[in-house]
Amino acid sequence: MTTKLPLPKSDGNLAPQLRPITWKDRLRYTLALPWNWIYSVVHTGYETLVVVFFIKTLKAGLLDKSHPWVTGISPHTGQSIWTDNLVYASPNRSKYGLTPDDDEQIVHKVGKFLSNMVRKSTEADPEINQGPKRRMPHGVNYLHGTVHFNGGFVLFDNFADAVYHFTDPAFIQEIRRFACEEKRELILVFRERRYDPEEYAWCLTCVRAHLRWYANANGPNKQAVLFGTPSPYAAINPINGSWATDVNHLRKGRMEQLCRPPISKPYFKVHYQGYRFHYNWIERYHAWSIYWQIKLRGFQGPLVFTPRRRIEPRRFEAFKKIGWWKWQSVTKISNPFFQSKSEQDAL
């Protein structure tokens, strides 16, 4: 059930008018930020161990090509699940850098892309060897099945629109309520297809500043945005951990519990109004620090569960010729401390 409510009037191209920032907003942000970062690090470490466990225990062929995680067709309705799980869509702007598809097509393309990852793990005899044709381990492909089929979708116009929503405490509270009540993942998708990858990185760290879960900036970028992976539209998945329950059902052969019915309970039913569109220097610094973590990883770059030398042998030869310092496998993020004072937004 999609909720699409009119927000305060805009000029037709920008997001709605901001509300004044209050001392409560500043205090809430200041107190929540360190907790969100610490929780994210600990939680990510735990989830990494869970992913490694599934990688070692889940093999190819556990699902066939007709399974809903592969087709996206709900056994409860006989139709595509993705549109039914679109729980919120912000109003469209009148102008875009590159005209997007309509909302249903957007979530369908993102869902189809993720379902195709699962499809690559249905081949068992022989299986598709991990390499250029199957980049991810089977365990990672399977977890994308529960994310796209059982998860919910939220649509924003652009990154500024997301910041506008995330600076409204009511919106953050609703995301937490969704995760707590539904026990599902949530995918944030952006309509705008022509964007600055560096701004995308800042948007990601803004989301992570307001939520305690790890998230990636996935999208159709020539170079990865931080630890992001390919996606037909820019899409952020705040990983709350609900995916592990469904993948564990798969591991134990509980096939009847894999496909949940469409989301029927309404969420995001009120008007939201944030206090900024921009990214402060803390969020920019966070993105810059993550960039250097990836840069120091050399050729492996942003890939975590996939050995890059195995899937991109030709690029590895190029890397050896170019050298570590000149090699750029991820979008470069500028140092916030060397920006002009006017560019460093106050907290």
Average pLDDT:
88
Please tally the β strands and state the result. 5
**End-to-end Cα distance:** 36 Å
Radius of gyration: 20 Å
Main sheet summary? 5 strands, mixed
Q: Given the structure, what is the number of helices?
A: 12
- Classification by helices and strands: mainly alpha
Helicity range: 40-55%
- Listing every helix as H and every strand as E from the N terminus to the C terminus, the arrangement reads HHHEHHEHHEHEEHHHH
Task: Based on Cα principal axes, name the global outline.
Answer: globular
Given as residue ranges, the uncertain stretches (5+ residues, pLDDT < 50) are 1-15, 340-347
Strand order of the largest sheet: 1-2-3-5-4
Strand content: 5-15%
What would your notes on this structure say?
The chain has 347 residues and is mainly alpha-helical. It contains twelve helices and five strands. A five-stranded mixed β-sheet has the order 1-2-3-5-4, with helices on both faces. Residues 1-15 and 340-347 have low confidence and may be disordered.
Provide a compact summary of the structure:
With 347 residues, the protein is mostly helical. The chain has twelve helices and five strands.
Keywords:
mainly alpha; globular; about 40% helix; 5 strands; single chain; about 350 residues
Helices and strands in order:
Layout: H1 23-57, H2 68-71, H3 81-84, E1 86-89, H4 103-119, H5 138-150, E2 152-156, H6 159-166, H7 169-182, E3 186-190, H8 197-210, E4 217-218, E5 235-236, H9 243-251, H10 281-295, H11 308-311, H12 313-322
Parallel strand pairs: 1-2, 2-3
Antiparallel strand pairs: 3-5, 4-5
Helix pairs in contact: 1-9, 4-5, 5-9, 6-8, 8-10
